[in-house]
Amino acid sequence: AKETRYCAVCNDYASGYHYGVWSCEGCKAFFKRSIQGHNDYMCPATNQCTIDKNRRKSCQACRLRKCYEVGMMKGGIRKDRRGGRML
């Protein structure tokens, strides 16, 4: 029986091992966009928002903080095939 893995960030079903942790496609894509876009997210509350499957989209700042807390690393990013230049 194959073991079911869950996203370390939001606890949804994990699609695979991404950026150093088991994560879902949503959190994988969010982390990639966040570190490629140099987004300065601001939490409207106290930087302690609960991030789970249902609330992961409610606070980008806390979602990104949790990505780092669970061990996601920038080193796992592949540059795109066109040469990886930032526009």
Automatic annotation (TrEMBL):
- Identify the keywords attached in UniProt to this record, alphabetized: DNA-binding, Metal-binding, Nucleus, Receptor, Transcription, Transcription regulation, Ubl conjugation, Zinc, Zinc-finger
Q: Where is the signal peptide?
A: none
**Which is one GO molecular function term here?**
zinc ion binding
List the transmembrane segments: none
Q: SMART domains per the record? A: ZnF_C4
Q: Please state what the protein is called.
A: Estrogen receptor alpha
InterPro entries given in the database record: Nuclear_hormone_rcpt_NR3 (IPR050200), Znf_hrmn_rcpt (IPR001628), Znf_NHR/GATA (IPR013088)
Which residue numbers delimit the Nuclear receptor domain? 4-79
